[in-house]
Design goal:
69% of the residues lie in helices and 4% in strands. The protein has 13 helices and 3 strands; from the N terminus they run H-E-H-H-E-E-H-H-H-H-H-H-H-H-H-H. Strands 1-3-2 form a 3-stranded antiparallel sheet.
Length: 235
């Protein structure tokens, strides 16, 4: 029978709502399973039928769409926990690569799904890129809480020498924090950006960080700091 792992994508609390009912979270589309395995369509249908008969999964909506879900969350968690770490990582890698190669619309609209799979696969370089995309997309949609979570996850995986991605992640999170009104955390990110700009001796980054500092000072009515930061940015 098909390895039940392919029904076991573990969405963490911060993004569970984003992947629910979208084909890879708590529900599962047959076309994704078919692409991620080497099984024939006939074998896949047979294995899914056996899982349904065993009451491990159940069809969702119109069955001709090939969408299924676990009947109980505990089954999902038990199956996932029973796999060796290396096996789990390999499956996550295969699913992420399958999505990237064959499901471009999903990659564009739900980059957090690939980010999660790459993270679970231990592939931090790939994971960071998709966490950043997810954060940027969430910010553009006004989902600033989720954006902060995504940027946090990117920053947790960025290597110490990867200044480009760190700058991108800090800038993305600072923007989300600005819209959320989290001034203390926003100020900390601006300080980190100023430090990074000085470390790299990059005048463009210095100006961008100072511009963000001016924006930070505005809602606090700290017009002196706002003016000083703007003047430094212009210089």
């Amino acid at each position: 029978m098909i390895c039940v792992f392919f029904f076991c994508f573990q969405a963490e609390d911060g993004i569970r709502y984003l992947v629910r009912s979208r084909g890879l979270g708590d529900v599962y589309k047959r076309q994704v399973l078919h692409a991620a395995t080497s099984f024939t369509e006939a074998r896949l249908r047979n294995d899914l039928a056996q899982l349904v008969a065993a009451e491990l999964i159940s069809p969702q909506g119109e069955t001709q769409q090939g969408t299924y879900a676990f009947r109980h969350a505990l089954i999902q968690e038990a199956v996932y926990a029973s796999l060796l770490t290396r096996t789990r990582q390999d499956y996550h890698r295969r699913i992420a690569e399958t999505l990237a190669a064959h499901f471009l619309p999903l990659v564009e609209t739900q980059p957090e799904v690939l980010a999660q799979h790459y993270s679970q696969a231990g592939l931090d370089t790939e994971a960071v890129e998709y966490w950043l995309r997810a954060g940027e997309r969430a910010t553009a949609q006004g989902a600033t809480r989720e954006a902060r979570i995504f940027f946090d996850r990117a920053l947790a995986r960025i290597g110490p020498r990867d200044d480009e991605q760190r700058w991108r992640a800090l800038g993305g999170r600072e923007t989300a924090l600005f819209f959320r009104g989290e001034r203390a955390a926003q100020r900390a990110d601006i300080a980190a950006m100023l430090e990074l700009a000085e470390t790299s001796a990059d005048d463009t980054r210095r100006a961008q960080a100072q511009t963000r500092l001016a924006r930070y000072a505005g809602p606090l009515a700290d017009y002196r700091q706002q003016l000083e930061a703007a003047q430094v940015a212009i210089a």
